[in-house]
User: What shape does this take?
Amino acid sequence: MKVHMQILIALGLGIKRNWHIFFGIIAGILVGIYLHGHYNTLIANLLTFVGQVFIRLIQMVVIPLVVSAIIIGITSIGDNKQLGKFGTKMVLYYGIITTIAVVIGGALALLIKPGLGAAHYITEHTAASVQASVQTAMTQQQGNILNLFLGFIPSNPLQSFAAGDMVPIIVFVVIFAIALARVGDVNRPIVSFFESVFAATMKITDWIMFFAAPGVFALTASAVSSFGIDIFMSISKYLGVLLIGFAIQMFIVYPLFLKFFSKVSAAMLFSAIAEAMMVAFGTASSSATLPLTIACCEKRGISHKISSFVLPLGATLNFDGTALLQTVAVIFLAQAYGVVLTPFLVIQIGLLAIIASSTCAGIPGAGLITIALILNGMGLSPEQLVAGFAFLFTIERITDMFRTLLNVTSDAVVTAAIADNENEINYDLLNNPAAYEEIA
Ligand code: ASP
Assistant: This one.
């Protein structure tokens, strides 16, 4: 059977199993479109409230889950050589997938040229208030790129925990876990402590998922109501390029990647992580989706040893959907403002998109903030920069939902490929959606 048919069937299986979340998304889109034309403050506030309850509940378990998963994962891998092998492979796979995303985004944007003639539209359609807040965001981003990397090393890990800064947290926990693995049997009390923490947080995730359908419904409805459907008409070329790029990455690149590097069928994997994909779309946050991504992978055949290590790192470092968007967006603005796109500049944009995306956080909107890193070196006038950036903000949420869907899916794709390479997949389970354990 053709790959795309298999994928459609698998998505269908996923939908059947999780129809409540899926219908939450559909109902959210419909209600959002209606509300766009019939604004009602009470309903809008109610939707925001319900959506935030869901996001906050799921965020509540992220830090204990990530910490315990990484500690258990790394200490169970044990020896340093194997860990080094996993680590290298993980960086390589994530790097390949992000580079392909950037190439696809760049090629499509250069070919279709969505930005030609858009300058006029950008200036007319971006509100002054948005422009002012964008100016502040951009000033914060300016400065030395090296400082950004410096920020990854936590001088005070507790402060990073309190602030919820995922990258420094992960850096600390990975070093701590490697040290624990090195000290031998004395690590038992700590490891078993974190085994209990992990089990309990997974249980809480199960409970939170009872709330997934109303949560995703409310989030989708308030997102759609804020931009309405007319946005699709006005900037259809830009959105069109993005959606084609996202579709190529999802339906061609991921299946080919899995075929090339593993025996995993994309159709089965998509079916296994269907809930995580839908929640990623609804929440636009890889971090918030992480507990669910881990639950889906582990309950459906991918070993704990691999998923507990590769998924949390992916959710903090791998943002291929974001990189694709950043490449398209920057080329779009360059075309709109008549910047000459020399091959050198295009390569610079691509490389910076890989860096900028991987420094972004798995929360809504983060990818658009880090885009400033690329835009600053483009030779646009300050007014053009602000207007262009503000324009991107106007259509932020819709693109965020799609790019987060990709970010989360590619985390699972890389995890599955590594698990396959290490014989850490139970194929009897992964390839049999009928036997999947329900989440919640
Ligand atoms: N919202 C995205 C994520 O959580 C990051 C981004 O803004 O691109 O994966």
